[in-house]
Amino acid sequence: MGKITVITADVIQSRKSGLDQAALTHSLREIAHPALLIPFAVSRGDEVQGVISGWMSVPQMVRMLRWRCRPLQLRIGIGIGYYDGRLGDDPWKLSGPSFFLARKALDGIAASKDPATRVATGEDGLDPLINSLWLLLDTLMSRWTPGQWEAVMTYEETGTYAAAAKVLDVAAQNVQKRCKAAHWHQIRQAEQGLSKAEDLFLTLCRVK
Asked: What is the CATH number of domain 2-127?
C-alpha cells in the first residue's frame, strides 16, 4: 500500500480563457520530477490531473503546474492518502480515497474566481492548518508579474542569479530584484514546511 498525493485542477472560466487542449497538453509534458508517478494529463474538457508519490512530498509541484499552464488560471484540489494496487499511466481511469479527496477539495473552491488551492486529507484537525498556508501562498503568487514568474522559475532551475540572467538575457541584478519582489525565499520556505505535513499526518493517524 503506497502513499500518494493526487492533484486535480480545473481551468477558471475555460471558455473565456481560450483554452487550447493541445497546447495545454504539450505544456504539461514539460513538468518532470522524480516524485511524479503519473504525469499530468488533460481530460473532461478543462481539467488536469496527476499523481505524486508520498504525502505532500513535493508541494512545489502546484507552483510548477501553475507555471506551465499560464496564462490559464487554475483552481487546484489536492487529496492525500493511500493507494493499493497498480496505478497505471492514466489518472482519469483511477479511483480510490485519494482521488475522491482531491475531488472534494476541488469542489470546495468551485465558486472561486481567483486561483486557489485546497487540500483534503480526511483529518479535520489537519486540513485547516494546511489550507491556511496555501491561502497565503496563493495570495502572494497571484500577484506575480510575468517577469517575476520567469525570474523565480528560471532561478530555481538554474540555481544562481547569474545563470538565470543568462537564460533570460537580463542582468543578474534584475533577476534578484524580481525574486525579492515575488517574496520567493519566503514562499520556498513555506513550501518546505508543507513538505513536512506527512509527519504531522502520520502522528494524527497514530493518535487515533
From this structure: 3.30.70.270
